[in-house]
């Protein structure tokens, strides 16, 4: 693995189980919609992430961490199972999407079976118990009713109208929810005590996962934490949110309107960073390893859209990733993908695991110099291959190629200029697809034999 500056601790290696008295408490913190290039440790000019920056300075920062899918439901399926999601990430009642989690081993199940206490808090419905994300957790809080009928009604109430075209009722509901902080739109301080309560009753070692809605839109940072936006900005932005929804996420904002959203977004990031500072301090006596990342990023018009629809440009796929207090320090330049978090956490816990991808703390001579992101949406597969400085995107008959060192915003497609490079990237993608198909075929055959479906 090529790295910038890295001091390697040799205590952990992929597939190797360490003794039980060395098993670490592990805390996984997921920020929803946090772009890497809005974090100080990735070069951002504003002081949005002071705590994350401190962790990066004394821990291990991955410069080219790439979400395996977009949006949350696709990305977090990969994080928890170590496998790409093969279902459409479009929000809705999707049994196939649920099976992507429930039919596969998850990191929580692996650690629970090895003796860990496991707890999670996820106030985002796409990463809720409805889709199986509670698998393996002793405690899982998603603020959704346990009764499935109630849950489905709540789901439709919050999301369905906006998916099917919305209307004024959706806009007014959003306004009400933000003002009252009801339903899923709750700041992290509202549920922080529940996290500490889990810690008080959990036996060590423990695995704790917290998904924060900061900085997911709508951006409503508490007034006493705002540095770049004002209280009036929060309410002026409501019309902009409506325009985003009503335009299919392609609004025509003025420069001032655009900057208002950036300012609110940055203040929401800063507020979310305060959670990290408090949790790190409150759990200091447990000496946990922190793994901090975002599920995906956020678009602000770079390619005509706002939000985080299932596309694969850098503003959506390039995310922050820091591992802190794991006896490793430096900056890793090699591209990595979020689905590598599952084996990484298992190895930190000294647990044998079934994940067939290398962990982040594993030195592998066979590590590929590229990673893959993919989504399935609107009847098509969108896939991207990412190296340190290059990016290839493929959808149906469309191909795009970008030189990220010269064009980090992906504004100049070079696929026609460099057909050989495009072909090489395409070959890499087909190699990945072939490997995935082969593995699924082996798994299907194994299941058929196990279930007695094969005649002898």
From TrEMBL:
Residues 24-350 form the Sulfatase N-terminal domain. InterPro entries: Alkaline_phosphatase_core_sf, GAG_Ulvan_Degrading_Sulfatases, Sulfatase_N. It holds the Pfam family Sulfatase. Residues 429-449 have a biased composition (Basic and acidic residues). SUPFAM superfamilies: Alkaline phosphatase-like. It comes from Halobellus limi. Residues 405-456 are annotated as: Disordered. It comes from the Archaea. This is Sulfatase N-terminal domain-containing protein.
